């Protein structure tokens, strides 16, 4: 049943769900739109509504062929920049944006086509030219955002939509600024980080404030994944992934032209200052594009075989995590026991922080050669893949925690054998698995 959103928009049916809310197919004065309605428990946070209202200008101001445009922001009445009022809908549908239900909704351009996760799952790996074209487009969108002082902070395949309505598919980055707004601490609250470990730049793990270079790191991680079918440091426990982000070097992808690989390595550098800026990344990728045309997807092995071998290890890992009361990904959210997994960790000492003994970065294999690690990065695994995101009370604490994690047994590749030593936990990482991507 249709519901009003603000005074100009109507939501018709659900297109998909994310961790922060539900996206609806809607209708507005200028035709079809997508409407992202934030979860009730998030929207009920007056600070969050205020932050969205405060960022209204930035959210609505980003216009670029590779960015999903935000047309309207509907926030509870009383907040600066509130959307227009309309009658509230029934409890089971999307409520209206008049403040009665306290809703926050982002009215966006409707993208006709799948998200990149869905596309990659279907294709297993993309041909270098396609992967590079997608990445170059998104990089050009990022360049505009970065020039406006906006860092995305959550670049990943789920947030890249493919418009397939034209002759050539066009990649568009969505969810700009949403991660930052949701992540910001309440007044007087603790600081924290929210992100998806596979794409999280090392400086975030180390507690530095996220700057534009984190988006470059994440985007080139996406490029790596499009080419390889798995991310450079993914697999297993999220804490282990975070530790690899900080300590391990990315494994080369056999069969990739040197120039492209060198570019990727530069953008995956641990030091943010070493990475290219978005505009340069876009133009360098476009320069490389003609030489890549006609190259087939990389031949790195059979992901189906990986799936068979790797899935049990992943499940063991989840069940090995100590059970705790559910802790939400997003601060203030209601726990969801069905999709939550958790781990808790103590602060390591200096020796432990040195880490490194349990390195788990995987070298790409020759065809047919099995790969140790998680099913999350195989294509078959991706079909069942649930996104992992991590939230940490105190980003600096995370920096210490991840170094400790593998050395004390939270690592992806040996969780069961290497249990904790019984020291009392002093801080924790809460891990929540998101719903399957639609
Ligand atoms: N502008 C849009 N046009 C068409 N479909 C969209 C649009 N924005 C999002 N969607 C679809 O809605 C679904 C949910 O999107 P949403 O951004 O809420 O979640 P997500 O990015 O998958 O996860 P999360 O928000 O947890 O990172 C996705 O499947 C996406 O393809």
From TrEMBL:
Plastid recorded as keyword: no
Keyword Chloroplast attached: no
Positions of transmembrane segments: 388-406
Keyword terms: ATP-binding, Kinase, Membrane, Nucleotide-binding, Serine/threonine-protein kinase, Transferase, Transmembrane, Transmembrane helix
Enzyme Commission number, as recorded: 2.7.11.1
GO molecular function: protein serine/threonine kinase activity
PROSITE patterns in UniProt: PROTEIN_KINASE_DOM (PS50011), PROTEIN_KINASE_ST (PS00108)
Pfam families for the chain: Pkinase
Region (Disordered): 79-99, 296-317, 331-384, 408-438
Superkingdom in the source lineage: Bacteria
SMART domains from the UniProt entry: S_TKc
Low complexity bias: start-end ranges: 82-95, 359-381
Cited Gene3D superfamilies: Phosphorylase Kinase, domain 1, Transferase(Phosphotransferase) domain 1
InterPro entries: Kinase-like_dom_sf, Prot_kinase_dom, Ser/Thr_kinase_AS
Positions of the Protein kinase domain: 9-292
Enzyme class: transferase
Listed name of the protein: non-specific serine/threonine protein kinase
